[in-house]
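Re: the multi-chain job from yesterday

Posting the exact lines I submitted so nobody has to dig through the queue logs.
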Amino acid sequence: DAKTTQPNSMESNEEEPVHLPCNHSTISGTDYIHWYRQLPSQGPEYVIHGLTSNVNNRMASLAIAEDRKSSTLILHRATLRDAAVYYCILRDVEEYGNKLVFGAGTILRVKS
Amino acid sequence: DVKVTQSSRYLVKRTGEKVFLECVQDMDHENMFWYRQDPGLGLRLIYFSYDVKMKEKGDIPEGYSVSREKKERFSLILESASTNQTSMYLCASSLFRPDTEAFFGQGTRLTVV
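And the result, structure tokens for all chains:
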């Protein structure tokens, strides 16, 4: 399985943009880049995913490097409710389905 | 509203008991997953299933087994519960395609005493 590397923690001020980085230097051509987040006392929830092009949705934006070896999750205006653990994951179709393997993630703290 | 439902939010069992954790999804998903989450260790994959009666070991399958007799239901079984299996257990499901999102249940906090 291709691995991802994220900083252990990051801090942001409320209403400022947050850029959460992820390195995935061994990514394969068919790996999708997914981001999930886990709020306190809840199960993880999907944030966004992409393959090659940058992606936007109502929650966030995903910027993917041209060589696909890194990506950045962008929260445009952090709120206190965005304080969570953010996971960057690669998903590919293997012979018998695709695993969903989590790393340690980045703990995002948002200051008011 | 799509849903992954875990049978219990909190569970207390005795050492040596056989424990069943149930997970049901209503989205006709092929993939289902079981994880445990411990402080400092993150989410670790125990088992996953990509079809009825099919199962694959994850990173930490020892001490666990699973059953998937119907597409919507994936059970995690602790044959003989031990105190080191005290943890938060999370179930998830997704379509087979890697460009789709996974949905998680709220978790079951299991305490083995």
